[in-house]
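The freezer alarm interrupted the setup, so I double-checked each line after restarting. Inputs confirmed:
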Amino acid sequence: MNLDFSFFTLNIISNFIIKGLLFSIKLTLVTLVCGLIIGTMIAMMRLSKFKILNYPALGYVVLIRSLPFVMVILWVFILIPLVIGKSIGSENSAYITYIVFESAFYSEIMRSGIQSVKKEQMQAGYAVGLTYFQSMRYIILPQAFRNMLPVILTQTIVLFQDTSLVYAIGAYDLLKGFEIVSKNFNRPVEAYLIAAVVYFIICFSLSYGVKLTQRKVQIAK
Amino acid sequence: MHYTFNWSFFFKSIGGKETYLTWLVTAWEWTLTISFFGFLVAFILGAIVGIFRTTNNKYLVTFGNIWTEIFRNIPLLVQIFLWYHVIPHFIPIINKAPRIVLVVMAIGLFTSSRVSENFKSGIQSLSIAQKHAGLALGLNTLQLYWYALLPQAIRIIIPTLTSEAMNIIKNSSVAFAISIAELTMFAMQAQEETARGIEIYLVVSVLYFISAFAVNLISQFIEHKIKIPNQTFVKQ
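Predicted 3D structure, all chains:
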C-alpha cells in the first residue's frame, strides 16, 4: 500500500507531461474544427436528393462507424506511406486519422441538427431570393449548430478521451507522457493513478461546462 | 499507388499446425469472448446503477451518479492500465487473475456507466402513473421495478443497448494494449511479421464488421420476440 508520489516533481511535469498534454489538446482542437467543417459537408450530402452525393456519404459514415477506432488509426498509418510514397510520422498520421474518423460522427450530429430546423425556414430563404447555399449558410446551419452545441461538445470530450488511442502508433500524447514517467522511475502504480485523476478532472470539468451550455441553449429557445 | 495482393501467407505455418489463418480464428474468438463477458458485466452493473439513480433514496442516487461520472470520464485505455498496473497493487489477488479478466472488467465497468444512463432515462421516460399504479396495488419497491417498470423500460432501451453492444465489440480492440491476442493485436503482430498489412487489416476489419452486424441481427430478433403489439410506453 506504500505509495510514493515524491518523484512526481514540477520538473517531471514540465519535461514529460506538458508536451503530451499539449499534443492531446492540439489534436482535439484541430479535429474539432476540421471534423465539424467536413462533417457538415457530409451531412449536407446525406440530406441531398441527388443519389450521387447521398450514397457515397452514407457509405463513408457506415464504413467508419463500423470499424474500431484503433483499426482506423492502424489503417491510415499504413495507407498514407503507400499512397504518397513516404512516411509522415505518427503525429501527422494521427491528425489525419482523427479528422477522417470524427468527421463521420460530427456529420451524424449535424445531420440531426439540420433536420431539427423546420423545413419552412428553408422555403422562407428561397422566398426572399437566397440560393441553397446562402439559406444554408445564413439560416439553417447557425440554428442547427446552436441546437446541437451540447451534443457536439459531448462528442468532443469523447474525442479528447480517444486521443489516448494514439498509443497504438506510438505518438506522444498525454498518456504516453505518463507511460514514459512510469518507466523512467519504475513507478507504474503512481503514474497511472495520476494519469487517471488528470483525465478525470479534465473530462469531468468539461462535461460540467457542457451542462451549463445546455441550460443556456434551452433558455435561448 | 500500386499494390499487389498476396493472400498465400495465411497458410504459412507459425509453428506446428498453427498458421496465420488458425491464429486469426483464435483472435476472433478472443474478441467475441471479451465482448460477450464485457457486455454481461456492463449490463448487470449498468442496470443496477441505473435503477439506483431512479430511486428516492439520496444515498443510492449519489452512489449511482459518482459511479457513472468516474467510469465515464476516464478513457478506456487508461482504465485498462488501472486494472493492469494499479488495482493489483491494492488488491493483490487480482495479480492471479488472467489478463482477459482485467480487460473484461475494464470494458464492463467503462460501458456500465453508459448502460446506467440508458436504464435511467428508460425508466424515467415511463409515465409516473405506472409507478403510482404499482404502489396502489401494494407492490413493494423490488416488485414495482421487477414487474412494472423494468419490463417496459427494457423494451424502450433495446435500440440504445444494441449500439452499446456494438460499441463493446469495437472497444474490445483496446485490449491490444496489454497484449491480449484478440483481433487488433493479431493485426498489429501479423502485419509486422509478414509486412502484408493491407490484406490483414482488410480481413480483420471485415470480421469486426460481421461481428457488429451479427449483434445487430440478434438484437432485432430479441426486440421482435418481446414486442408487445399496439403498445406505446413513452409518456404522452
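Quick read of the result. Chain B has one domain: 19-225.
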